[in-house]
Amino acid sequence: MKMDVSDEQRFIAEIDAFEFGERNVGDVLEALEVWLDNLRGSLQSHRFCTDGLHGHSTLAREAVGIDAVLHTHARACAQPWASLEAVQFLSDLFDQRVMLLVFGKFNAGKSAFCNFIAGRFVAQGKTVRYFHVEAGRVVETSAAFEEGATETTARLQGVCLGDKLVLIDTPGLHSVVPENAALTQRFIESADGVIWLTSSTSPGQVQELDDLSRELHRNKPLLPVVTRSDEYEEDEVDGEFVRRLCNKSEARRALQEADVQTRAQQKLAAMGVTGALLKPPVSVSVHMARVKGATPPGMREAGFERLFTALLEISGPALDYKRRKRAEIALHHLEENVLDTLHASVFPLLAKTRASAQHTVNKIEAQQTLLIDAICQRVLAVLPEILDSHASERDVTGVTRAVTGAIDEAFPCCVREFFSDYDVSHEKGLTVLDLDVSAGFEDIAIEMGDSETCAREVVGVGYRRLHGALKQAVHAAVRKLSREVASQARASINQLIVQADQLHDTLIQPKAQLTELKIQIRTRVM
Known about the structure:
Elements: H1 7-16, H2 26-45, H3 58-76, H4 85-93, E1 98-103, H5 110-123, E2 128-134, E3 137-141, E4 157-161, E5 165-169, H6 178-190, E6 193-199, H7 213-217, E7 222-227, E8 230-237, E9 240-247, H8 250-271, E10 282-283, H9 286-291, H10 296-301, H11 304-323, H12 325-391, H13 396-418, E11 442-448, E12 455-462, H14 464-523
Parallel strand pairs: 1-5, 1-6, 6-7, 7-10
Antiparallel strand pairs: 2-3, 2-4, 4-5, 8-9, 11-12
Helix pairs in contact: 1-11, 2-3, 2-12, 2-14, 3-12, 4-6, 12-13, 12-14, 13-14
């Protein structure tokens, strides 16, 4: 007579049949190396051009600071895989096993869950080996996980189930002792899928998934399990009311599972994680399965037949992840430790530089006005003296030459005062005064005698009209020079803005290229 095969037996048998052939990802790994080489070369070769800006200016210093950050990242890229060796070591250590991370907050029942699943493997004749992390080492132990109403998991621990499956029971990520923190994180990174335990007393606290953000963004499948899915009921025994623990009804379990599913989908969407990773939640009660002696009806009523089906469904995607894990680990490193770190360092600096540049541009008009006023004030102050010194010869050309010289002398001093951040070029002797040709020195004369014998006598030389014409010409010449100064300053700033935008775009391109490689890694057929 043929016996029915339970979902538990089918799950264990199919896990035993897993084959761990690795995908051929050599060409993708080579493409990742090329991507990294191109990024490193781009960072090493970058130099902001700060022509027209003095080195002490805020913008020049900010540009130099960005270049320094780029070159620091370029050096860090030179040995890209060093930080991956420890993660790869763990992956190799459990190379022929699917690693499922069991995650949950306090009172989710992680240890009890793992112990119970381990017991079912033992019941099916499979070998079970426990281990924990101690002082940065993996230590095998014969003891099962400690269970209790309080938080008992103070270290990372795991259990090897048969030859093909490992459950990793994590403590709260913030409660790991320092000497175990790094190895704990490496175990988490090495996991191929995630079982998220959430207690039925407050199921689906989706903020817990924030601690799994990195792993979920790495495209690892997620199975929510509602634990402690039992409740007290009152019953009458021998005329007295007693409270006894029993399984929650199928209807109540279905409502909680649907709620967890909905809120988990919303949370993943908010995190930018594809909802395809999320598997339908299942509800279980370890306590009730134990009370019933793990009999087939007791297992079914406690939700474990559905759980084993769900575990088999998550094991498939987890196995697929494992087969491409070597490429995934390299991809994660380049995304998180190289590109994301680079963007986090450089993009705020670029934004700050663009803001500084815009603020500086907005000040130029006011600086230009101050420059005009300062130069004109200096030149017009000596204008009467210049006119007096040339009056006897009535030398308008000499006056023009002297006024031009006064402008050329005042110009660099005033530029240093009001445009000190800029390297402004101005050649002496090129200043041109556009003087009214009719303006010149005038006779100062008096009239003598009466109306019939009136005589006109020249008693001096005047320059009222010439002074007015020179004043207008000086203002016109200085405005022109100041416009040229402002134009050079704007050109220097705009050049920096353009370079900052180009650098931003240059750093965006590798993100798109890496995304294309990610698609290749996750969609190619073995």
